[in-house]
Amino acid sequence: xxxxxxxxxxxxxxxxxxxxxxxxxxxxxxxxxxxxxxxxxxxxxxxxxxxxxxxxxxxxxxxxxxxxxxxxxxxxxxxxxxxxxxxxxxxxxxxxxxxxxxxxxxxxxxxxxxxxxxxxxxxxxxxxxxxxxxxxxxxxxxxxxxxxxxxxxxxxxxxxx
Length: 161
Ligand SMILES: [Zn+2]
Description:
By secondary structure, the protein is mostly helical.
């Protein structure tokens, strides 16, 4: 029966033949001198048990009901970004992208919530924000264009004298 020996230098576990019991050998991995225990079946010199580097598996328990759909959160955030951005001139042109993204995410999240029985508040809020942004952004752009048109017509270029 072979003796299980663990190298104290590199940790390699090796099986050593019985006639090496009580003697010293060389680790095949790192070449360090390894003491082979005298009695066959004796525990290896290294401390038994789990190595400190192995973490215990900690499964993430996700409760299906009551937890927000990440899609609803994304939809709400995108809708909110679009809504806030729609009040900022020049930036609101780009608000269409988050608004459309928020609308799509919120609609998918709403249908998911209906299927899985999750709370729909956040998805609904995202949907409303996105719709308001989609209506509000073109209005803002129209107002800006109208103002720009008015400004240019009010201030005609003065010809040099
Ligand atoms: Zn070794």
